[in-house]
Amino acid sequence: MHEAGNQSLHNLFGEAIRETSDLAQKEFALFRTEMSQSVRSMFIGLAMVVAAAVFAIAAVMLLTESLVEWLATVLESEALAALIVGGLMAAIAIGLGLYGRSAIARFSLTPERTVRSIKRDTEVLSERVSG
Question: Is 28 helix (H, G, I), strand (E, B) or coil?
Answer without folding.
Answer: helix
